[in-house]
Amino acid sequence: MEKQARIYVAGHRGLVGSAILRKLQSEGYENIVIRTSSELDLRNQQQVDEFFYNENIDYVFLAAAKVGGILANNTYPAEFIYDNIMMQSNVIHAAYKYGVKKLLFLGSSCIYPKHAPQPMSEDVLLTGELEPTNEPYAIAKIAGIKMCQAYNRQYGTNFISVMPTNLYGPNDNFEIETSHVLPALIRKFHEAKVNNEPYVTIWGTGKPRRELLHVDDLADACLFLMDNYEGDEPINVGTGEDLQIKELAGLIKKVVGYEGDVQYDLNKPDGTPRKLLDMSCINKLGWYSKIGLEKGIKMTYDWYLDLKNDNMFE
Ligand code: GFB
Question: Which terminal residue of the chain, N or C, has fewer Cβ atoms less than 10 Å from its own Cβ?
Answer without folding.
Answer: C
